[in-house]
Every structure is written in C-alpha cells, then in structure tokens.
Write a structure and sequence with these properties.
heterodimer, A: eight-stranded mixed β-sheet, four-stranded antiparallel β-sheet, 11 helices, 12 strands, 25% strand, B: alpha/beta, 24% strand
Chain lengths: 328, 336
C-alpha cells in the first residue's frame, strides 16, 4: 500500500485531450474544442493508489481513458515503465493493454447482458490468446473466488446479480490478465453505502495480494482519502493540487481544494454544527471556453490581479506537494 | 410545538407480475411545525415511496396504499378526494425532487412553470404571479431573476435548476417541504450551496422539512430528528445527535461504520455489512435485517421486532440492546 517504493510506473506529461465541436450536417466545420483535459503532468508510482478527484465534467474520467489509450490524446505523452505508449498502434498497443486494465463506473452498463459471467471474464484471455480453452474455465473460476463470488455462478447472466456483485465481476474481468495497473473509474459511486464498503475492501485486498497500482477516480473525497496514498485534484481540465493524502487533507493549499474539502459533509452533527463552510459562488465554466488566466478565477474567494491575466504554473511548493496557484 | 403531521401504520404495496412488492411496511412517525426530519436508507428501502405515499403520488396501478393514516393538520390525506388532495399538493405541502434535469418540463419556460402553481392555488393573475415568481427566484439566489423568467430549463446549470425547483416548491408558502434526495444528482460544492439555501429558507419561512437521502453526511448538519429505514420499515428513530452519537440498531451501526470519513485518519478496513438487503416480494418472517446482522439471536429469525422506546425520543426495532448485553464474546463489528 505504501509508496516508499518510488519507482515510476506511469508517467503522464502534458497530456491534452480535446474533443472537437463541429457544425453543419454534410460539411462539418470545426468550430471549437471541448478542452476536457488541458495539459496535465503527474507520475504514478508502482504499488501506490493515486486518487483523482474533481467535480463532474472536470475531465477526470477522460484522463483515465486517455492514459489507457482508449482515446487518442490530442497532445502530450504517457509513459508506462519508461516506454512511451501514446504513439503505439496495433499489436504493440494490444500487448501493452494486457498490463493496464479498467474498472468502469456503472456495473449495469459495463457488462454485456447476453454473455454469461464465465464468457465475460474469459473474454480478455481470449482476445489476448492466453491459456488453452480448457484452462480458461479454471482461471475464470479462480478469478471468481478471488473477488469473493461463488465459482458456481460461472454460467449465470449479469441480470442475476446485484450491483455490488456485478462490480465484482467487472473487477474479476480486469484482473484476468494479471495487469500491473488498473484505472478504477468511479467504481463505487453507483452502489449503496453498505455495498460500497465491501467493494473498497475488496480493491484494497487485491492490491495487497497482487501488488497492483491503481488510479482511483472518484468524486467522493471521503472515499478517496480512505483508499489513496496520494491525491490529485482536478478542476476544469487541469490539475490544481497534488499531494500525499495526509498533507492534502491537513494542509490544502489551493483555494479550490479548500472549498471542496469544506463542502464535504461529515456524518457527525456535533462537528457539522461547528464547521465553517466555504461556499463557492456560481458554477464551473464551460470547458469549451475556459476563462483567461487561472481556470478557477471566476469562483475563487482569494482571487487577485494576476489570476485574471496569467495561468498559474503547476509547481512543487513543498517536497511532494504540487499546487497551481498564484498565491504560492 | 404544534403537531403538523402524523403518520400511522402506513403501508404501500406494488402489485406487479412477479408478485406483491412490500415497499413500505407499516411506518409511523410524527413531525412538528418547523421541524426537520431526515429519512435515510439505501436504495429500495422505501424511503421515497413512504414519503410520496403521504401526498398520494404513487403511480396506481401498480402501486396502492393499502393501510394507514396520514394526518396533516388533523385531516387524513389518504381519505381526501382527488380534488382535495390536489389543493394540498404544491400548496400546503411543497416538493423538491431528486433530478432537476428531468423534473422540469423542457418545453416550458421556467416562468410559466413557477406561475402555474401560483395561479392555480392562490388565484393570482398573470402580472401578480410573474412578480411573485421573480421574488421567488431572487429568494433562491438566481441572479437577474426578472430576465431569466423567460428562459428554458436547458439554459440553466444543474445547481441553478435545483434552485428553480426549490423556488417552485416554496411558491405557495408551504408548511411542509418534502425534499426527495435533492442533492444526489449534484456536485459536492453545489450540494453545499443547496443545503445551505434550504437551511436558510427553512429558518426564514418557518416550515417543516422532510429530507430524504442515502447520505448520512448531508443530513447530519441539517436535520433535527432522523429516521433510518430498512426494507420498508423504520428501524431506528432519534434526535440527530443521539442517532449519530449513540446508534442502537445494528443496521445504523453498520451504516455508520461502513462510511469512510473525511475527518478521520484511516488505515483500518471499513466495516462493511455483508450480504444484500432482502427481496421485498418475499420478505422474511422475522427481522428483515436478520441475514446480515452480526448480533442476531434465534428470536430474530421468527419474530419481527416493533419500534420500542429505548431513551427519550429514541426508538429502535431490535430484540437486542447492542450497548448492554453483547451476544457474542468478541466485538462483532471488528472484521476478522
């Protein structure tokens, strides 16, 4: 779980992912871009969990998908174990994909309703031509056991399972190829509170067991704090702060992080009574037309002159604590 | 304070092809004027159906309120004619729904949607209703309200739409506001805005609020009293500080234990509740939480406990007292 091991597994450099906006039906003119991810840089160390938090539409899921090359990034580079994967194509990319897997948000939409659980979990093995057909079934049963499901369920269909169980199937599928790196895209937000804890515990156990590295994407800061070693905060396509979890929660530096943390309700009425909230005014601007200067300048309670003019640099203000703000 | 609402033995069922779904199984509670009641529970526990039954917004068929009384101001809402209940809905009882994206009509301007209730219930003319609508939008913090009256819902962001919904809920000065997961579809910073707004308006207008949520965090700073629901029943009810500080039902304990907290340094495993909620078509004979409960005794399997007082205003539906006599020797919530 700890990140004492400083070996960099995934390196993201100035990653950009723009989605074009076009107009016209027959002749499509390019009239603008949704800047979903706009130049972010960070490392993920082997064996750690990096939490990526932000509000909806801030580009956190796009980041996860762009790292896995599920989208072709508009710009920037992604390195996996020192090898650049951004330009990879065909067979090379397929080989790399074995080592990076994804767990999706919606356990109802991410499993094919017409395939049995056995076929769903065996599909990655089939695609990558691993194991003989006869051995695959045993591997699937083994995987089902690993994620806490009865191997006896192998011939059932997804609709026969509850949300939490389906998410376990998604986890088993991601584990099938023994990956090093898993992007978990809001794996618990579609689940009920009591089931969430089951899945979080499962993910933690698997990490210990198989030495996995996670990029854990979520909007729930309490969950992210629980599971992550380091946390990155995103706002409107950019990273605003990155630090280890204790530093981030004890000493948040970016005004957005401060507001985000103060907005999270704590299930304790005594504490809630005394808490002073920073209530942010207004809404997130459109990523099609982000404000000039700092992205957060339209809502920031500590805004001053340079924020409207110049984009703040994402820099290390303390060892291991990165912030993009003119205040520091 | 005066009693505003009294719910007695409310029972709602859905008659489907697969069988009878026991969504709400005899819940009783009361609400005073100006009081805020938080109802928490997981999806499918009947919290929404239970409250929608109060104002008879249950789709029928397949739904049917099969038993119970809902006394609002001494009048039984369940015995009213359709016309009478319509004059209560949106008038004395305001409502805010979960999803502001789908509960506003996309082809009508928001001005039209707000004024509809005003003209219907308060008999205002066009000009009066528009003036009042502007007032309401200002009240909920929408800038340049007069100009935005002729905008359509798609021209508003999620948080702003929820503000419009609140304005509609408040339009006729209701004495009771029912908020059904009003912040679930919103981001955390917007959620903070909305909670703050409802709190402020509640104190200004002195209305009672029933706030339904699955998030134990949101209601902690908002509610006076809390009710925890499981499988269509209230399993625990208490003052908010008592419920969080001294939870007595195993389900409430489990729910609080399975919640990662922002203010606590973790490092330990979360205490998850194993298993799944029961099937509402085939409810077990005994306590519905029996299969998942770590304190269970044999009696729980055969007899379903009713709500009993265990302290001042603190009721639980459980055969065992988790604080006094531990049934097992080891702490059952310590995961092995």
């Amino acid at each position: 779980m700890s990140s004492d091991n400083q070996e960099v597994l995934v390196k993201v450099k100035d990653l950009k992912m723009y989605f074009p906006i076009t107009q016209g039906i027959v002749i499509q003119r390019h009239v603008g871009d949704i800047k979903a991810v706009d130049g972010i840089t960070f490392n993920i160390h082997r064996g750690e969990t990096l939490g990526l938090v932000g509000e909806s539409g801030c580009g956190k899921s796009t980041t996860g998908r762009a790292i896995l090359q599920l989208y072709t990034p508009t710009g920037g580079e992604v390195y996996f174990e020192g090898e650049e994967i951004t330009g990879l194509k065909g067979e090379h990319l397929r080989k790399m994909r074995r080592r990076m897997q994804m767990i999706f948000q919606d356990p109802y939409a991410s499993l094919n309703p017409r395939m049995t659980v056995g076929n769903i979990i065996a599909e990655p093995l089939e695609v990558h031509n691993i194991l003989k057909r006869s051995e695959r079934r045993d591997r699937v049963k083994e995987l089902l056991e690993v994620v806490g499901l009865n191997p006896y369920f192998i011939n059932r269909y997804p609709h026969e399972f509850s949300g939490g169980q389906r998410q376990r199937i998604g986890v088993a599928r991601a584990l099938a190829l023994n990956p090093d790196f898993i992007v978990a895209d809001e794996p618990i937000s579609a689940l009920d509170v009591s089931i969430q804890a089951q899945v979080i515990n499962l993910l933690e156990d698997l990490q210990e067991q198989f030495g996995l590295t996670y990029l854990f994407i979520a909007h729930d800061l309490s969950v992210v704090r629980h599971i992550s070693d380091r946390i990155a905060v995103m706002y409107l396509g950019k990273l605003v702060e990155l630090a280890d979890r204790h530093t981030l929660y004890d000493n948040p530096m970016h005004p957005y992080t401060q507001a985000l943390l103060s907005a999270v309700p704590i299930p304790d009425p005594v504490i809630e009574e005394k808490r002073q909230r920073i209530i942010l005014e207004g809404d997130v601007p459109s990523p099609q037309n982000p404000p000039k200067g700092c992205n957060f300048c339209t809502r920031c309670p500590k805004v001053f002159e340079p924020c409207y003019e110049q984009e703040p640099e994402f820099k290390e203000v303390e060892p291991g604590h990165w912030v993009a703000c003119h205040l520091y | 304070m005066a009693r505003l609402l009294e719910v007695k033995g409310l029972r709602t069922q859905f008659f489907t092809q697969d069988g009878v779904v026991n969504a709400v199984n005899g819940i009783s509670y009361t609400l005073d004027e100006g009081e805020t009641l938080g109802i928490v529970g997981e999806s499918g526990c009947g919290k929404s159906v239970g409250v929608m039954s109060l104002i008879r917004l249950i789709p029928s068929p397949p739904g049917k309120i099969v038993a119970g009384e809902v006394l609002f101001d001494g009048q039984d809402l369940l015995k009213m004619s359709d016309g009478e209940i319509r004059s209560v809905r949106g008038n004395k009882i305001g409502m805010i729904f979960q999803d502001p994206m789908t509960s506003l009509n996309p082809v009508l301007t928001i001005g039209r949607q707000i004024t509809e209730a005003l003209q219907l219930h308060l008999g205002m003319n066009n000009a009066q209703a528009r003036a009042r609508a502007v007032e309401l939008l200002e009240l909920v913090g929408i800038p340049s309200a007069a100009d935005r009256l002729d905008d359509y819902p798609h021209q508003f962001s999620g948080g702003m739409r929820q503000r419009v919904m609140i304005a509609m809920g408040l339009s006729c000065n209701p004495r009771l506001l029912i908020a059904d997961e009003p912040t679930t579809a919103l981001d955390v910073t917007i959620q903070a805005q909305i909670v703050d707004l409802v709190k402020k308006l509640r104190d200004e207008l002195g209305m009672a609020v029933i706030w339904i949520t699955h998030d134990l965090g949101v209601v902690a700073g908002l509610a006076d009293r809390m009710a925890v629901m499981y499988a269509g029943m209230i399993v625990e009810e208490a003052e908010v500080k008592e419920l969080y500080g001294n939870p007595r039902h195993p389900y409430t304990l489990g729910l609080l234990g399975s919640l990662p907290r922002l203010d606590q340094v973790s490092g330990q495993k979360l205490e998850s509740i194993e298993g799944l909620p029961p099937d509402l078509i085939a409810l077990p004979k005994g306590c519905p939480f029996y299969a998942r409960c770590k304190y269970r005794i044999d009696k729980c399997k055969t007899e379903n406990p009713s709500l009993q007082n265990v302290g001042v205003g603190h009721r639980i539906a459980c055969w065992i007292d988790v604080t006094k006599d531990p049934v097992t020797t080891e702490n059952p919530w310590q995961t092995a």
